[in-house]
């Protein structure tokens, strides 16, 4: 997007027409397609294939614990003030590290590492040091600060002094969940962090030479208005984070039990929610941020924006990423791995996770091996969602297909979106127009074979996947 107001391209009627429920495409195929029959044998075959490829590694660690509950949260989490519960979990993570690392080529460098949650900083300083040291003993972590090693933090529970310890552990990127500075909204969702706390952490992170600081906001929360959210955004921009995410709150209380504590009558009306988003995009563009896509913005000099400009941006289970050549091995309850053309997910409950490790088994719940068609569609969706354009030659150079013939039905289905001005279909490419970037998930859905099958079979299906709406 250029520096013109995005509202010049905004069309409420068009947005409502295409604001369907659909995947966020942090993977393709998406998690509902995973098969519970996948286990150790499939994992070993995929690990062997991954070693043969010799690609660098991305490691993900899921820390599920939180001191208090945020009512909007849809993450896999355990709410407890009993810090002792983290003791066996860290030991379980160390055991899982050992069980995986023995099959992974030790020479492969770890270019990317991420701790997510939950709240990773729920762990004590000693536990974090122990876990990182164990990881370093099992994998080839980079010692020159050149990797992308990130951690999610809750500003309320981290002091500037603690950031010094995180930096010493090797973390060089921070993601902070702010959500909203409005006090009434914070009470409504039980999430508290003051502007002063966030400012102190941002200043400390810069002094410690953290390479990227990302702040997360959520629009669509109870008691939010376009005016109140504009004030929060103004206060956030004064901090000038390197990256900023403005996520859509999806109210799905039947799926996420904690959301039942939100008073749905206090949620902003759909039109107000659209106004919040439109004003936020305008404000961020005018402030000099690049619209990366899918809720994400970055300063032009940030690596995320540079990766998109260089056409090598990637998307994985943590969202947009700059290390698309990595194979991801993940640890902890519910975590998802992607290596050897296979996805694996660990057990979602901590009891099942512990039980598997107690029997000296990898805590695998389900997975899927990508077919050739899956890989083709995965590449198509990734190119569209990351770069908003798709030269057919890029797919044809990687796979033995004639794009227009292989995707004849999909191209035909996109004609209605072309007529609405969301994209342009040429003889040799698909180009997403600026008005279509906001609805990129809708465009990608045309190439989702499983989603199409689900739609055809939904009358006979016992249960169908639940997705949030695009906007």
Automatic annotation (TrEMBL):
Catalytically driven reaction(s): coproporphyrinogen III + 2 S-adenosyl-L-methionine = protoporphyrinogen IX + 2 5'-deoxyadenosine + 2 L-methionine + 2 CO2
Lineage, broadest ranks: Bacteria, Pseudomonadati, Pseudomonadota, Gammaproteobacteria, Cellvibrionales
Cofactor: [4Fe-4S] cluster
Gene: hemN
Every Radical SAM core domain range: 51-287
The protein's assembly and partners: Monomer.
Binding, S-adenosyl-L-methionine 1: 60, 117, 152, 336
Cross-referenced Gene3D superfamilies: 1.10.10.920, 3.30.750.200
Originating species: Teredinibacter turnerae (strain ATCC 39867 / T7901)
GO terms, molecular function: 4 iron, 4 sulfur cluster binding; coproporphyrinogen dehydrogenase activity; coproporphyrinogen oxidase activity; metal ion binding
Name under which the protein is recorded: Coproporphyrinogen-III oxidase
A biological process term (GO) from this entry: protoporphyrinogen IX biosynthetic process
